[in-house]
Amino acid sequence: MKYKYQLITLGSNVPERQIIIDQIRVELWNLKLPEEFIKVIPASSIEDEYKGNQPAFALYFGDTSSDFKDLDVTQRLLKDGTMILPIFYDSFENDIPCVLENQNAVKYSENELNRITNVVLEAFELLRSTRKVFISYRRAESTGVAIQLYEALESYNFDVFLDTHSIQKGEPFQDELWHRMTDCDVIVLLNTPGFLESHWCKEEFAEASAKQIGIVQLVWPNHQIKDIDKSSYISYPIQLTEDDFFNKELDSKGRFIEAMVERVLTEVESVRARNLAARQDNLVTEFRNIAGKNKRKVTVQPEKILTEDLPNGEHIIYIPTIGIPQSTSCQSAEIKKELMGYDEVSIRLIYDDLRIRDKWLKHLEWLNDNFRKDIKTLKKQDFELWLQKA
């Protein structure tokens, strides 16, 4: 591989260090990326193995006895602008050195394992830094749980869509709902007994399956999943019991016990990487099929991007973009351009424009016409036209 993402481990040599590294490797597998994509560098090897011109992220493992290690390396990385995530166990003030007092930290627990892993993947632009979740539910049956999960997910820095909280007055309701679903990472679906009796709830389920968006499906007690519920291969059902509800109340005002809320948060974090890989694969496969039909030779790189070398010596990088392309997508494209070693290259952020609102599509077209010439967006409905060009 031409480059590696560098994960630097600092601080105490605790068992959690290897647990996190192993979980990162699991998530790389879920993303269908090679394990060697991330190079793990202990502080003791920093002089020999660390490369300042390649992406880096560091984990600092605290010490409950305040016996802080690797402070010189930590200060060097901070001066280099490397992001460092402190991990503590009892209290931040006691477990983490003062040199990291201004860094956001995470208290380690098994429930936080996926969250820590995803922070690393987000830092390396392997997962979107925008963490978007869509809650699908039937108001008459599960409003209490929906609001509870909305608040819990928001507290974990997710951008959560809930129809009663997320659509501004004056916006076309259904257009905005489909738009926000298209741009989410995971759907939390509250599958109550009457969920599929609602026309719009049934539409939301079908739309999620068509878009291959990962669904964390919470199935109410004494309610069996029907065949239509199983139609999405990226649906992850959790069968609930009455004990998962506070005071066993199952009506629209009922709420989950805290342990169930924690389980949902953990599952949402876990599903993100698997969902991203499925949607990327779908977009890449469709683009390659159309390219092959038009006798254009595109190559899939280990980094999950496509490259094309034109007869005139020009190079094009196609980057599959999940959801709606943002300015951060362009920043990520710049990183990939540099790491691929290309000097003269144009970049196309390819994306599925189905259900994205017209005002956003017009905005993206305006950006294409008025800003950078080397990075542009390319929507799925224009794949054929673009690839037909000589």
From TrEMBL:
Highest taxon in the source lineage: Bacteria
Gene Ontology annotations of biological process type: signal transduction
TIR domain sequence ranges: 129-268
Entry protein name: TIR domain-containing protein
InterPro entries, per the entry: TIR_dom, Toll_tir_struct_dom_sf
TM spans (from-to): none
One Pfam family of this chain: TIR_2
